[in-house]
Design a protein that fits this description.
globular; about 550 residues; single chain; eight-stranded parallel β-sheet; binds alpha-D-glucopyranose; binds calcium ion; five-stranded antiparallel β-sheet; alpha/beta
């Protein structure tokens, strides 16, 4: 067996702005992270992924970078970063940083140069195009992922520029080798400092079809996406990046992809392709998206979720590798979305974690998930910061849509659900800051916080520790084969992980009702041993059992 560290690792994502504020300005910072490293180590994870820490005007909270070699002022200095890196490594942890290179900030020096004149040497770093049929029509009908047209008119040079996200995030032109070289240099700058890898933001957006054609899918939420998402030249670029940069370091890469299916995914990550190591796919995140997309919420079904996860498990099994997550800075809180954040918050948070840590793939934990943090509910749009939610709201109000409905949708889907400050203890501002937090703290911090969670031996936090430990001790959880059972069961997700004669059985009840679990007759074994569960269990017969609400069990069968 070929053992690889990033397959065995558990990764903890930090959203620096909301993690820990050390100086009372209301914004999390690098020194704050250093203060909490022992906590992260104690949880048992192996690596930290830091959401962007580079200099940024923060239209999209750091996902709009104006200086790739500088640290965001509010987060601290390069000296702070160097110390953070040292402290992370001292504890035997690794660190990945976010590489946001589909676009820059419009305040980046390249863009400020590019927009000066049409013949500026940086012009071709971006996509500037003439308007169609005169200057008042956008070059094509592509839409921005944050709403509205993907083109912004630049009156100085009388051309439009392309931005697949907000207008403050102009897309870089990856067809230009100079751009690629600049990016590789930035990557080397950080790698030479000693970081251990990258999470690559929106990496399936970087290559666009030549000619930027008009799209026929005018009703799609993302009109035009067939001309850039996962565009074929991308593999040429990632392969080149691998050759020129990645292969020269012992690191890991996880590429975020918003529109890649498992067959396509193989091209990005199969070992002989020499591109990336794993992807952070969105397909399972779309299970509760209605026909109209992000803001059209539909009830998700467990059968759909199981189908998607099983498809990824199967397709990437031989030569690929999966990542596993239900939460990050772009998603609502998992316990609110897939569990029950009221009556069964603790049980369902543990059940969901059991799934993430027993599926085949590298588990990603998003800050606060390990204590069961929940969505933030507010009816005041002014309490929101998320550029996506806020611009959708404004546009919809302009069109005359109902405010109440909009707020309901935003409460469910907004990315701010995950971005409220980390809840450390029950003191003011949840111990996150001495000042006024940049985003409101979830009022439930009195009972949901790290301090409580560490003390209580039945807490979600302590369950996460056990799960991480279990995965470390059982290679089968890392390398064992995945096989779903009871595929069509609408309430229970059950599967086997196996390697040689050894088998693990994972049983997860996704419902707030009790359900009967019946083990298929073809699964034979002489002994069973319970490895972990989220309830006290008094009966060891597993052929037929009643699962309690959100119950999770993992057995070893031999
Ligand atoms: C990714 C990030 C998201 C950001 C977007 C644009 O999806 O995760 O937070 O807004 O890319 O960079
Ligand atoms: Ca601060």
């Amino acid at each position: 067996m070929n053992k690889i560290w990033w397959k065995e690792a558990v990764i903890y994502q930090i959203y620096p702005r909301s993690f820990m504020d050390s100086n009372g300005d209301g914004i999390g910072d690098l020194v704050g992270i250093i203060e909490k490293l022992d906590y992260i180590k104690y949880l048992g994870v192996d690596a930290i992924w830091l959401s962007p820490i580079n200099r940024s005007p923060n239209y999209d909270n750091g996902y709009d970078i104006s200086d790739y070699r500088g640290i965001m002022h509010a987060f601290g200095t390069m000296g702070d970063f160097d110390r953070l890196l040292k402290e992370i490594h001292k504890r035997g942890l690794k660190i990945l940083i976010d590489l946001v290179v589909n676009h820059t900030s419009d305040e980046h020096r390249w863009f400020r140069e590019a927009r000066k004149t049409r013949d500026n040497p940086y012009r071709d770093y971006y996509y500037f195009r003439k308007g169609k049929g005169g200057s008042n029509k956008t070059p094509n009908n592509w839409k921005s992922w944050f709403g509205g047209s993907a083109w912004e008119y630049d009156s100085l040079t009388e051309e439009y520029y392309l931005h697949l996200f907000s207008k403050n995030q102009p897309d870089l032109n990856w067809d230009n080798k100079k751009v690629r070289n600049e990016i590789y240099d930035i990557m080397k700058f950080w790698l030479n400092k000693g970081i251990d890898g990258f999470r690559m933001d929106a990496i399936d957006f970087i290559s666009k079809v030549k000619g930027l054609p008009e799209s026929k899918n005018v009703n799609d939420e993302h009109t035009g996406k067939e001309f850039y998402l996962n565009e074929t030249k991308i593999h040429k670029y990632l392969n080149e990046m691998n050759r020129e940069v990645l292969s020269r370091y012992n690191i890991m890469t996880a590429g975020e992809v918003l529109g890649v299916d498992p067959e396509e995914a193989r091209k990005y990550i199969e070992s002989d392709r020499e591109e990336l190591n794993m992807l952070l796919t969105w397909e399972h995140m779309y299970v509760d998206y209605g026909k109209k997309g992000t803001w059209d919420i539909k009830n998700w079904s467990l059968v759909d979720l199981k189908k998607i996860l099983t498809k990824w498990q199967g397709t990437l099994d031989k030569k690929g590798w999966n990542s596993q997550y239900l939460s990050n800075h772009d998603q609502p809180r998992q316990v609110s979305r897939f569990g029950n954040d009221k009556k069964y918050r603790i049980e369902s948070a543990k059940m969901l974690a059991t799934m993430i840590h027993t599926l085949k793939g590298t588990p990603f934990i998003y800050q606060g998930e390990e204590i069961g943090m929940t969505n933030y509910v507010s009816n005041d749009i002014n309490e929101y910061d998320d550029i996506f939610a806020v611009s959708m709201y404004k546009e919809s109000i302009r069109r005359g849509e109902d405010k109440e409905r909009l707020m309901k949708v935003i409460n469910y889907r907004s990315r701010d659900n995950a971005r409220t400050p980390m809840q450390w203890n029950s003191s003011s501002n949840a111990g996150f800051s001495r000042g006024t937090p940049w985003l409101k703290v979830n009022p439930n911090y009195g009972s949901i916080n790290v301090e409580e969670s560490i003390k209580d031996k039945n807490s979600i936090f302590n369950y996460y520790r056990k799960l991480i430990e279990l995965r470390k001790k059982n290679n089968i959880l890392i390398y064992g084969k995945y096989e779903i059972i009871l595929e069509n069961n609408e309430n229970i997700y059950a599967y086997l992980r196996s390697s040689g004669n050894e088998k693990l059985l994972i049983i997860l009840n996704f419902s707030e009702d009790s359900h009967l679990f019946e083990l298929p007759g073809n699964i034979r074994f002489a002994h069973n041993e319970l490895l972990i569960s989220n309830y006290d269990i008094d009966c060891d017969k597993i052929n037929e059992l009643f699962l309690k609400p959100y119950e999770a069990r993992v057995y070893r069968l031999s």
